[in-house]
Amino acid sequence: MTATATPESPAEVDLGGEARARQADRGFRALVTLAGLTVLLVLGLILVTTSVRGWPAFVHEGPLGFVFGTRWAPNDDVFGTFPLLYGTLVTSLIAMVIAVPVSIGIALFITEVAHRSTRKYIVTVIDLLATVPSVVFGLVGVLVVVPAITPAYQWFADLVAPVPGLNAVFDETNTGRNYITASLVLAIMAIPIITSIAREVFATVPETDKQAAYALGATRWEMVKGAILPHSFGGLVGASMLGLGRAMGETIAVALVIGGSVSMSANLFEPGNTMAALIAQQWGESSGLHTDALIAIGVELFAITVIINFLARLVVRRAEIKMKGAHS
Amino acid sequence: MTSLSTATPPDLSGRNLSKRRAFANRTATILIGLCVLIAALPLVLVVWEVLSRGSSAMGLDFLVEEIPRNYREAGPGMGPAILGTLTITGMAALIAIPIGVLGAVYLNEYGKNRPLAKFIRTMADVMTGVPSIVMGLFIYVSYVIVIGEKNGFGGALALACLMLPIVIRSAEEMLRLVPDELRQASAGLGARKWRTTMTVVLPTASSGITSGALLAVARAAGETAPIIVTVGLTYMFKPDLFYGENTTLAAQIYRNATQPFDASQERAWGAALTLIALVFLFTIVSRVISSRFAIDKR
């Protein structure tokens, strides 16, 4: 300490240093607590500021009219966003139908099938897939995949044309930019996140259960069916919900490949739009109430994704607790 | 009567499996392997397309020249976008990493299992799921409208919001790996908690924290949606982030990909190659750091 200039009262000096040190400790504690609270602060601010700014659009249409209105016509000041909600749900649900089984398969391959040496490479591939920027997926999607896949869409539409029901869902295609293309891109982007959570979930399956299944003479697949999957069901539901939340909020890749028409079509080969993609597409050319409406869509999207993510984390955590409780 | 010792041991080789069970097992294994191929295919496709189409545009002049103002004009130039990506992402890192690491210190050293810490942890996880465009809209409303113009710093703020929860959660994981003996030893020598944290805990976890932060930077560098909302879509780089619209590689890819002209599309591919190289570089450096200097391997 620097305050050693008063040798006649060493006890006092010591106390001074002690008090300062305690103060430093308290200050540090306050600082890190504040840093931790930033998370809550930012989330709260997002909700408040965007809601305030989007309020005029909510009021203009009425909350129900905004969410469930089917006509989006910024030039006439009509802002019904139901087609966007429809597009968001359709694309991300189809994406999950593809991504969830594939991700579970990859996670099983990594944890149960692959040797130690190959495991590392597969994990690297999945990690790299997660780091590819979404705009690059969009670029490859719109300039490579769309032209290449359009004939395949047409072929499939012709194939199912005589089948009632299916022919309405898979009908004529014009550009190749449509719900299905968007879903494919979303599926690829959701695979890494679902895979990583699924791996965590599988890692919590007690080794004794697996060994017990093998000891009873189970094949690997029977062990997976009997020991791993029943244990992991809750966690896998949570993982799928996290993937769903991610897919619903994905913006740029979808904006490039979905075609950008605000309409609701049962035909998945027709262009549509999603909430996030529409904000990005119309942002540059919007003003006034139109901008407010785009921000209001952001509020809606924020609410949906936060709820889904929150529920997903709860589900994953409960599944983990249940597992650890059963084990110890 | 055969005694136990002479009984043939049970056949565990699996050779006598019923055909149906063996078939089911083999089919399942093949399907599981197929899943890995399905995931690897898009990665290979993306990397191949970006490499083959982007390399024709690539070159030293591509990395430094200005971006042509006319979409139809052939020729190089992504210099401003590269500078923009580096400065805006760098600024975002300067904001997010200190706050994130301190927040992690709170969670692991002070908060632990208190209700507030648990709540912050959950909300940080939830925050990682907030769509990037919403972060852009947030900064637009609370910063761009307030100061009256789009600029680079707005983009840095939006990216910082995206990085913050990733940095907090990964840094907390790393702090948790620091052995308690180190903290006790430091406390035993009379160091205060803040001293212990700053001089013992954080340095021990530094490599892991760096690696997590780099991953967050890599993710932020590729973000497009918040950039076009808060920074704008232009072709100029401004070194002063607080003044005027700016640009990044991701924004240039989006801007050029939506044009029907070959020249602009070629620039988009070149920009994509640059961006992917940058992002992969960050990721690989991060993995090298985390595998070289991991605490548990010491």
TrEMBL record, chain A:
Keyword Transmembrane helix: yes
Residue intervals of the ABC transmembrane type-1 domain: 85-312
Subcellular location: Cell membrane
Predominant location category: membrane
One GO cellular component term noted in the UniProt record for this chain: plasma membrane
Keyword presence, Cell membrane: yes
Membrane-related topology note: Multi-pass membrane protein
One biological process term in Gene Ontology: phosphate ion transport
Keyword field: Cell membrane, Membrane, Phosphate transport, Transmembrane, Transmembrane helix, Transport
InterPro entries named in the record: MetI-like, MetI-like_sf, Phosphate_PstC, Phosphate_Transport_Permease
Transmembrane residue ranges: 30-48, 84-109, 121-146, 179-198, 228-245, 293-316
An example molecular function term from Gene Ontology annotations: phosphate transmembrane transporter activity
UniProt-listed NCBIfam families: phosphate_pstC
Sequence similarity: Belongs to the binding-protein-dependent transport system permease family. CysTW subfamily.
Function: Part of the binding-protein-dependent transport system for phosphate; probably responsible for the translocation of the substrate across the membrane.
Protein name: Phosphate transport system permease protein
UniProtKB/TrEMBL annotation, chain B:
Membrane association type: Multi-pass membrane protein
The keyword Plastid belongs to this UniProt entry's keyword annotation: no
TM region(s), chain numbering: 28-48, 81-107, 128-146, 152-168, 268-289
CDD domains per UniProt: TM_PBP2 (cd06261)
Limits of the ABC transmembrane type-1 domain: 82-290
Single GO cellular component term: plasma membrane
Swiss-Prot/TrEMBL keywords: Cell membrane, Membrane, Phosphate transport, Transmembrane, Transmembrane helix, Transport
One biological process term in Gene Ontology: phosphate ion transmembrane transport
SUPFAM superfamilies, A to Z: MetI-like
UniProt-annotated location(s): Cell membrane
Gene Ontology molecular functions: phosphate transmembrane transporter activity
Functional note: Part of the binding-protein-dependent transport system for phosphate; probably responsible for the translocation of the substrate across the membrane.
Listed NCBIfam families: 3a0107s02c
The protein's name in its UniProt record: Phosphate transport system permease protein PstA
Organism annotation: Glycomyces paridis
